Structures are given as structure tokens and as C-alpha cells.
């Protein structure tokens, strides 16, 4: 069968795309094995813009990644990570959210923020475009962990 030049170029394009995707996967795999410090040193921009094609973090990579962000909890459906704490007062909570917001804006990757009971903060992260957890989320989580905040020791009851 004589392959038309169009068909050959589309095969070449698909091979090229597969190899680029492979590199992207590989790059994401190597980042996954990183510690908190090196996660904090990463930039979402180096991964391009997240999209529906951004690879989800594989279940086998989760335990190591979660060790890098020990304050965060992995949702039971493994599709998001959450950070919860109480601060000294309302303005401390607001200050933290503004600083964490600046990190998110710089990375172009945004958490869900909750401020309830005037000082209880909850930050939730997942990649909306991909419908689950990608390396974008772990990089932003590690950077948010570097934001200083005056956290109250875990409250025993609502005072
Ligand atoms: C164009 C822009 O980069 C995208 O809309 C970004 C913005 N911030 C985002 N944040 C999160 N958490 N998930 C996304 O899919 C996402 N997409």
C-alpha cells in the first residue's frame, strides 16, 4: 500500500506527540519522586498549562508525594488534597489566605479557600481541568506549606 504523504506526516505527528507526551510523563514521574524542598523549588509554569490531557498522579506515587506535604490530607477518593487548621484570629486567617492566594496566582493554579468560624482555614487542591490530582497540585501545596502562619494547637472543642 502506497502511503500518501499526508498519512505519513500524520503518523510522524502522532509518533512525535506520543514521544512528547512520554517525555512529559517521564518529567512528571521524576518530579513525583522529589522531596518537599525540591517540590517547592518547582514551578507549575515549567509543566505548561494544565489541561484535560495533564496526566493524573498515579496511585503508586501518592504515598511518597503525601510524605512531602505532611500537613495535607489525601481525600478518600484520592482526587484532592486538603489542609485544615485554626489561626489565632480572623485577620491572621485572612493574611494567610492572601499570601497563599499570591502563590496560587504566581503558579497559575488555584486552590479552593474556606474561612469559617472566624478563624478556621481549609485549603483544598485538585486540578479542575483534569478532574483529579496532578503535579500542579503538589507543587502549589508544597509552596503553600512555606507560607508562614500562626497556627493554633489543634482545638479540642469549639470555644
Ligand atoms: C487558563 C488557566 O491556566 C486555567 O484555567 C487554570 C487556572 N487555575 C486552575 N486551578 C486549578 N486548581 N485547576 C485548574 O484546572 C486550573 N486551570
UniProtKB/TrEMBL annotation:
This is 4a-hydroxytetrahydrobiopterin dehydratase. GO terms for biological process: tetrahydrobiopterin biosynthetic process. InterPro entries: PCD_sf, Pterin_deHydtase. Keywords: Lyase, Signal. Its EC number is 4.2.1.96. It catalyses: (4aS,6R)-4a-hydroxy-L-erythro-5,6,7,8-tetrahydrobiopterin = (6R)-L-erythro-6,7-dihydrobiopterin + H2O. It is an enzyme of class 4 (lyase). The keyword RNA-binding does not apply. Transmembrane segments: none annotated. The keyword Transmembrane does not apply. Belongs to the pterin-4-alpha-carbinolamine dehydratase family. One of its GO terms (molecular function) is 4-alpha-hydroxytetrahydrobiopterin dehydratase activity.
Amino acid at each position: 500500500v502506497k502511503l500518501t504523504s499526508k498519512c505519513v506526516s500524520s503518523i510522524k505527528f502522532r509518533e512525535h506527540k506520543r514521544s512528547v507526551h512520554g517525555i512529559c510523563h517521564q518529567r512528571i514521574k521524576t518530579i513525583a519522586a522529589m522531596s518537599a524542598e525540591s517540590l517547592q523549588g518547582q514551578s507549575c509554569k515549567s509543566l505548561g498549562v494544565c489541561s484535560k490531557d495533564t496526566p493524573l498522579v498515579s496511585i503508586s506515587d501518592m504515598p511518597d508525594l503525601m510524605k512531602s506535604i505532611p500537613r495535607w490530607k489525601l481525600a478518600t477518593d484520592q482526587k484532592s488534597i486538603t489542609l485544615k487548621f485554626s489561626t489565632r484570629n480572623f485577620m491572621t486567617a485572612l493574611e494567610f489566605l492572601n499570601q497563599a492566594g499570591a502563590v496560587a496566582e504566581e503558579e497559575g493554579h488555584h486552590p479552593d479557600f474556606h474561612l469559617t468560624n472566624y478563624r478556621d482555614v481549609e485549603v483544598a487542591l485538585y486540578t479542575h481541568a483534569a478532574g483529579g490530582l496532578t503535579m500542579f497540585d503538589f507543587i502549589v501545596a508544597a509552596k503553600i506549606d512555606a507560607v508562614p502562619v500562626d497556627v493554633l494547637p489543634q482545638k479540642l472543642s469549639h470555644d
